[in-house]
Amino acid sequence: MSLIANTSQLASAWQRGVGLAAGLLALLLPNLGAAQDYPRRAPNFDGLAQELFAEVQSDQIPYEDLYGTLLQYYQSPLNLNTASQEELRALPLLSEKQVAALVQHRTTTGPLLSVYELQAVPNWDVRTIARVAPFVTVQTTSPNAARGSLSQRIKNEENNAFILRYERVLQQRKGYSAVDTFQGRPTQRYLGSPDALVLRYRVSHAHDFSLGFTAEKDAGEPVAWRPGHGQYGPDFLSAHFVVHEQGRLKTLALGDYQLQFGQGLLLSSGLAAGKGAETITTLRRASLGVRPYAALLENTFFRGVAATYQVARRWEATAFASRKNIDANAQVRADSLAQYDEFSSSLLYTGFHRTSTEIANRQRLAETVGGGHFGYLSADGNLAIGFTAVGTHYGMAYLKRPEPYNRYEFSGQNNLALGVHYSYGWRNLLLFGESGRSQGGGLGTVNGLLASLGPAVDAAVLVRHYDVDFHTFYGNALGENSRNINESGIYVGLKVRPIARWEVSAYFDQFSFPWLRYRVGAPSQGRDGLLRLAFTPTKTSVLYAQYRARLKPLDLPSSLGRPVPLPGQQLRHSLLVYYDGQPTPRLGLRTRLQATYLRADDGQPWRRGFVLSQDASVQLARRVQLSARYAVFDTDDYDTRQYMFEQDVLYAVSLPALYGQGTRAYVLAQATFNKHFTGWLRYAETRYRHQNTIGSGLEEIQGAARSEVTAQVRYRL
Fold first, then answer.
1. Considering Cα of 471, then 473, then 475, then 478, what sign does the dihedral take?
2. Closest CA to 267 of 285, 245, 243
3. What global pTM score does this model have?
4. Which tens digits make up the pLDDT trace of 645-655?
5. Is there a domain that residue 434 lies in?
6. Which tens digit of pLDDT belongs to each residue from 23-34?
7. What's the distance, CA 50 to chain centroid?
8. Strand locations in 114-220, DSSP E?
9. Residue span of the structural domain in which 106 resides
């Protein structure tokens, strides 16, 4: 028996040695003098955005939340030696067979000794390793062992910094001009300065603790001390304190936090990429539980307390309670026989409080949310089951406008949603899903399958159905609507690597809406399909072409005057050609051409829009980096507008909507002065042709150019 054991140990050692040697030869031969630690570069969010989002068509999606989550992974990387299967799946960059292969490798050979050893893990190619490298690390010892008390760990933590950001549009907007009169009444103006300010502080360590606060003032918002209205200086304040792994107490969160369980049907946080050019891995959501909140969005978090406790060896229980005031417009009924004297007809999610009207709607509605989650995880990590309950109470009734499409919308003050979710992995298959029921009886369900059909073929299927009266307020499972309501659909995804360095990705999604929707006056259906061909000539470059077609229902303009509008179909063709390369170690280049062709079946001609951009990033010196873009755009109207992610200062997301004719350019400089100070300076300008004014309403600018400047400094303690 000892001989067999020794032989097994020798085989494992030999396999690890071969893997390390192969990794070192493959990744270090071009640079033999490099250090032995894998270089963790800052994440390329622009490149990741091209993969996670097939086509950006809206600025209302919380991209900042996803960006902040990825940055948190960068600052507190995932330890590949201790990460669970669920944590590995949470990275939207790994396929199921890659997760299974890594877990099997750890079981067979023991903990990884280096990131280079990933070269020896089946299905882990060089491109995959390069993509995940910014977000992972390899540690052979417990990261929190022998680090002292919690206060000492916080004091000695390297990931500990203040960030101060300043932004301003240089041209004067109408909202900041002198007040004039309209029909004898003074018009509204912004009550604050045009300066936008953000102050952040955060200290955190993965699987140990997170402590931070954020203060933000948007452009136009006044700084005021109004305790009676919940304002203490800046318009938005946020803070959190989270500790992990305190014996059986797995997580305790105080202040602002997020929750992610199951497929996000009832509770979903920032890692919700949805449909994109990554047609497989982004379908399944990971149950990450309680997470600290440190973003600037003012409506996607809970405020209060949450805790996760290990009640038994394989069982964990989470309880949470939240109370905060949210933006809403309040109305009073004159009818004494009405069920509610005071109610809100809409919730406001912009987060802006600049005018007297916006300030009057600020935090008008008290929201109380409470509930819990009870989860089971098998010993091998392949089976996970969970039960979720979420109760919501509003301080005043929520009643939407009495329009036909609002017939089944939530009304009242209370809602209780119950759900169950599951996940089961077997070999190269992963089954997952979640089903729920809201208080009015509405049902929602989403179920999927991920399968590796061979070494070079991955497939996915996802079926969803959300009743017209299924109501959740913090859910965000995959769907065509912005909310999980009034929808049924089936999604099929495929990814094929026919030969080395080539990859074909595709999906087809067919969906229907059983009831009316906004601007769609009848039950309707639509289709969405994507095809991408990608070529990776080197480890530092990628070239791909992408085509997407979307057929969606929309009321025809010619029928909007009728009592019942006539629904039609709107067809959108989108083309994208993208190149990302690094000719030299100090120079990076990105070229992007995207175009949209849009037509509705109302007899009107095709409308089109396009944008062509060139990016360059240069490492001028060891501590100075420059990035720049120049883009030309031409669109027929606002419906054919073009969105493109732009590089911005750390923790900021820039996603301008380009429409009309003109150019867009920016330059971003980053300088590291010493181990404590890092600074960013950004200037961006949009210049229009054939226009004398830009924007509308209080955002109107007289002239043909809009310029923005952003400055940020980070101080590491």
1. positive
2. 285
3. 0.88
4. 898 998 888 88
5. no
6. 433 433 333 333
7. 13
8. 136-137, 160-169, 181-182, 185-186, 196-205, 209-217
9. 2-42+76-137
